[in-house]
Amino acid sequence: MMAAFVDCRIPSARLWRTGGILVLVVMVAAARPDRVRAAEFIGHQALYRVSLASADAKSGVVSARGAMLYRFADACDGWTAENRTLLRLGYDEGDENETEWSQISWESKDGSKYRFRVRDVRDGDLSEELEGQASLTKGGAGIARFVTPDQMERSLPKGTVFPTHHVMALLDAAHAGKRRLLNTVFDGTSQDNPYSVGAVFHEASASVRRALAKKTKLADLPVWALRMAFFPEADAEAMPKFEIGFNLREDGIADDIVQDFGDFVLLLTLQHLEILPKPDC
Length: 281
Hints:
About 10% of the residues lie in helices and about 50% in strands. It is mostly beta strands. The chain has one domain (about 10-275). A 15-stranded mixed β-sheet has the order 8-7-6-5-4-3-2-1-15-14-13-12-11-10-9. The longest helix is centred in the middle third of the chain and has 13 residues, at about 165-175. It is globular and about 50 Å long. The model is unreliable at about 1-40 (pLDDT under 50).
């Protein structure tokens, strides 16, 4: 469900899209009669361990440790997602920096409204705080209004989607036999928003599907392997700011997540999963 912390040399919004990433790991609609629809997604809380998968010498990063707690729930009129992450990065000079990053968001079920709040605390000091809301017209254009740190408005181009409906579009495309999709996504996790998100995907093998069902102790459902690259909409760079890869069950539960920042890669390993009760709407 699909975002960040890090020391002052690495902009925090690069790291954790998961409010967004991990929120990007949520929804669906249409095609096969046996598929799970968005309203049937499982509310859940997942705990991931964060570790360093690899790093180039030029990054200066030699270690990474931490945890991410992700909670997704049906709020009757919308979906809520909460991401709380603690990350400690170690550097070759012997320094270690700690970041606590959190995001809480709400997205309406018709995809037209979105609210968000983000806090980034580095080594005990508040580094960044973002809060606001966004709305889209039926034509897909819209506006985002930030109230923290400063009051600011940003136009959202036609075709913009919010995180949950972005993943709905990805899974619709996958069921239609497509293998790639480009969308403009607003998640509020940084002032670089919105992002152009290029995604490639395919259905995972039966062995991967069965292994994830066993790991989560849930029913055997289709699983999709996703890889997404994030480009700031306002900055036409040839290279993405970061990339995310993960396997996603059709009930909205994600397996281990890989976050690639070019010069170093983080691995988020699923440690514990709790299923939340359905709301009494």
